[in-house]
Amino acid sequence: MKKIFMMFLLTVLVAAVQAQILQSFKDDNGKYGYKNASGKIIIKPKYDFAWDFIEGLGIVSIGCDIDMKGGKWGYIDTIGKEVIPIKYDIIDFFYDDLVWAVLNNKSGFLDRTGKIIIPFEYDGAYSFSEGLAAAMLNEKWGFINKTGKIIIPFDYEDIYSFSEGLAMVKLNNKWGFIDKSGKIIISLKYDELNEFNEDLVTAKLNDKWGFINKANKVIIPFEYDDVKSFYKGLARAKINDKWGFINKANKVIVAFKYDELRDFSEDLSGAKLNKKWGFINKAGKVIIPFEYDIVSRFLDGKAAVKKEGKLFKIDKTGKKVSE
To answer: For 185-234, how does the pLDDT look when each residue is reduced to its tens digit (9 = 90+)?
Structure first.
């Protein structure tokens, strides 16, 4: 009897939770509202855009266009009450329990009750990441914490949010990385940088690309015309306008002869040769001939392709499996 009661209670609780999961919908008049998991309208359509609810709050707009530009933005709760007033020019999702917003061309941060935690006094900002937010003042960027205290001075021309303890910064038109104390970890000498991936970052120096690690050591020399980040141990690289694959020891895995390449997915890479796409394996062997105008990556053993104006899917042998 006790077991039956507990199962009944669990069923009731699950139903109650599902009832509170609200999803936005658009009516015939182009207005957005919210329905629960059963399809019942909980909040009547009156917004020009609405995001699905996340952790009990939903972003809504009044006055924005179909591209979600313009208008005013705010947050509502599950009964439609404005928690953060619909008066902001831009508003983001919550990160680290604070949300970045723009009001009268100034950036600030609010909490989940709509209270202003960091005043709207910055010329620009990014959402919090790893406890710090990039902010701009007088055309210079720095970092602030969740109380608004300046942690890294406003010295930089451009800046990226922290990821794995490092942030990319620009000074005197050169890029490098700093840590959360503001210490330079990767010298500010590179023409371009990207974010770290598989412990290496693509870097451009004197018009050539290579890879460096977090100790600022050059792992792959600056000898390529272009490179893409490593993915599962391989990176696309370009020499003399042709693409191939290299590994982290800078060994050529797939020869430099392709017009374009995609990262490997399910052990196959989309490759373009003489204006047509096909698929190769990690040994560089052609598995599916170059006869398609467009290809997607493989997912669950299938890839979408286009040939002679028709779109359809193929399997990993090249056999057509569906329209």
So the answer is: 999 999 999 989 999 999 999 999 999 999 999 999 999 999 999 999 99
| 241: exposed, middle or buried (Cβ count in 10 Å: 0-12, 13-18, 19+) | exposed
Banded pLDDT at 19 (limits 50, 70, 90)? very low
Task: Let me know if residue 247 belongs to a domain.
Answer: no
User: Alpha-carbon distance 47 to 67, whole Å?
Assistant: 14
The count of structural domains within the chain is 3
Q: Which structure tokens are listed for 81? A: 């009450």
- pLDDT for 310 beyond 50: yes
Which residue, chain included where needed, has tokens 């855009």? 49
* 243 belongs to a structural domain: no
Beta strands in 259-302 (DSSP E): 260-261, 269-273, 276-280, 286-292, 294-295
Instruction: Give the separation between CA 238 and CA 226, rounded to whole angstroms.
Output: 5
Task: Find the DSSP H helices in the chain.
Answer: 2-20
Q: Is residue 116 part of a domain?
A: yes
For residue 322, the model assigns a pLDDT of: 78
Q: Where in the sequence is the domain holding 186, given as residue range(s)?
A: 95-190
Give the global pTM.
0.82
**Token pair for 123:** 């010329």
